[in-house]
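The instructor's notes for this session suggest beginning with a concrete chain rather than abstract definitions. Hand out the sequence below and ask the class to guess, before any prediction is shown, which regions might be ordered.
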Amino acid sequence: MAPEERIEAVVASLVDRRAATASTPIGLSAEEIEAVEHDQPAPIGGAYRRFLELAGGGIGLFLEGSDVFHPPVLGLREAAEDLLAENNVPAALASTDRVILMHQGYWFDYLKGTGPDPEVWTYTETFQHPLTPFRSAGRFSDWLRDQADRHRGPGSEPPAG
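After discussion, reveal the predicted structure:
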């Protein structure tokens, strides 16, 4: 299954299972996606672009409490770099990395490198010592599926793919 199709399956599973209150996803316009794209130096791969198209403005309570949707996603790289500097972590973000989520100022997830469905890495100041980023998913579509499974709760069936 192509990365874009995996993203479509995850978003559909959130809607079909009524896992989110007001579960109609809010997709971003071409102009909003362009703003997200130009906010950071790293390119937007196909899977992440499809996510933004389908649900980049939010989907009910999914990922509530984290800055992942538009417009709060704008400026996340700068916030992540500030967090790394605050914790004296050597430069961890390459110009090909894109910060996609920040949770309450102490945790962020980012796409590592380029490609249609890149790996997701996590940095948190509360989990691992020494404080260094670690790989949290082999590809963005898997990361999104894992987030959706957690949101739906125990015993939920993951979408195919």
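Then share the key points. The beta strands are 66-67, 98-103, 107-112, 119-124, 134-137. The two ends are 6 Å apart (CA to CA).
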